[in-house]
Amino acid sequence: MLDELLVASECESVRRAASEVLGQDVAQWWGELDDSEIFLNSNAQFAIAYYQIATWVRIAAQLPEVALVAGYSLGELIAYYVAGALTANETFRLVRERARLMDEAAAGVERDGGCMVLWRGRVSPAALAARDHAVAEYGLDVAIKRRHGEEVLAGPGDAIAHFVADLQAMNPGLVRLPVTVPAHSHYLARAATAFRDILAASAIAAPRITVLGAVDAMPVRSREAAIDALSRQIATTIRWDGCMEALAESGIDRVIELGPGNDLAKLVGAEHPQIAAHAVGDFGDYRALADWLH
């Protein structure tokens, strides 16, 4: 995932910033992770942050004026880097602090097998009723509302396992996610409170480009609102459905997803076909993005 971005000359400043925060060369850190370690919360968050920041550095000069920035989960923090509210060094530092706090808050939660599950697909009313009953019975939260009929649930790993066992036959589209913390749920309330204090003491500034708050899809234009949005989302439902609606209502006609992957671009295209949406990775060469935009 990171190999090309770790050696690209245009990403050298990102590599220096990440290495400084890690206390070791980021390429060495990445190369030493085995397949199981990559999915540990702290490693996964830092790797995704590196991918998104480096990708932005690559493409920023090709873009016309950006009207809005939105981020999904960790991506909301990276959105403030894109919007000019954070330096790369400060962003990487906050990514590490956020992951640490989330891990500490989830320390007493069973995490084997993953703490999140994706519910999607057309199902019967009986299946929906069974889902709602199981969510309440096992103490799960709706972590992310992606679009109508599609959401991510979060909770302890054993509760997620019971939920999947109970509902898999009724909804074969269930996907257990390899996420080792119950993000965007009440289980991480302590992390949200602590991260607010860290953000308040950080160098985060008012964004130069409006950012959509992930929990309510409201525009964020001040430092205070950014601190509130980024702390709340750790333990509150992400309303990605609302963010997509806000993009459409704002007259946005093109959307670029930094990645990795193109899941969010596909969601935007499916829900709002009037918006042309692509991930950077959809192009064989990131420089081809300029041709599509112009």
From TrEMBL:
Coiled-coil blocks: none
Keywords: Acyltransferase, Transferase
SUPFAM superfamilies per record: FabD/lysophospholipase-like (SSF52151)
Domain Malonyl-CoA:ACP transacylase (MAT): 38-284
GO biological process terms held by the UniProt record: fatty acid biosynthetic process
Gene3D superfamilies attached to this UniProt entry: Malonyl-CoA ACP transacylase, ACP-binding, Malonyl-Coenzyme A Acyl Carrier Protein, domain 2
EC number of this enzyme: 2.3.1.39
Record-level GO cellular component terms: cytosol
Record PANTHER family: BLL0263 PROTEIN, MALONYL-COA-ACYL CARRIER PROTEIN TRANSACYLASE, MITOCHONDRIAL
Name this polypeptide is given: Malonyl CoA-acyl carrier protein transacylase
Organism in which the protein naturally occurs: mine drainage metagenome
Lineage: unclassified sequences, metagenomes, ecological metagenomes
